[in-house]
Amino acid sequence: MKKLVFATNNEYKLSEVRAILEPDFNIISLAELNCFDDIPETATTLEGNALIKAKYIHDKFGFDCFADDTGLEVDALNGEPGVYSARYAGDANCAHENMCKVLEKLGDNTNRKACFRTVIALIQGEEITYFEGKIDGNIATQPRGNSGFGYDPIFVPENYFVSFAQLSAEEKNQISHRALAVKELVNYLQIEKKKSLAL
Ligand code: IMP
Hints:
- The chain has helices at about 10-20, 45-60, 95-105, 170-175, 175-199; strands spanning about 1-5, 25-30, 65-75, 80, 115-125, 125-140, 155.
- The protein is of the alpha/beta class.
- The protein has a single domain, classed as Maf protein (Alpha-Beta Complex).
- Strands 1, 2, 3, 4, 5, 6 and 7 form a seven-stranded mixed β-sheet that branches.
């Protein structure tokens, strides 16, 4: 079983990704590496931040590794909060305050189109590869539901009448931005595995 470090400390993300990748891959968390470093996310793009995180772990521990970065992009807010999603309302990364800021800035704007976009950067040896997953939807007028995390209560995926936070973890995992990006990653890893077996 191939070992891969997922450079995250977010338990929700870890279980979402493990549910998709295991049992084919052994996903090692940062906690299991005893790494609790606050990796600075100083890039201005999702790609840049995903690479910073993956490279930090790869350089420090020498393991093949992937990291993700996600942003909620709201059309009527010119793509905000985007790469600044975690700290949109301040350094505390408070989901409630972040959601309130989006709702306040949108006001009664009828254009509530938005998407979640995830970029994964995978580092294997010297090779860097990017994967992307995106889901379109709309911003609800108020938070709904208690599952998930972050902006889930105000994001209603396209063709749904409920928010991400009203779906079960399994349902969200079928359609989410992160699931789509991880599927791209898995396809790539499986093709690579077949190629190496054929050699
Ligand atoms: P990260 O860079 O992937 O940690 O994501 C940045 C921020 O985007 C998080 O702090 C959350 O506020 C938000 N976010 C990321 N993924 C999700 C999700 O699946 N649902 C809701 N919010 C998310």
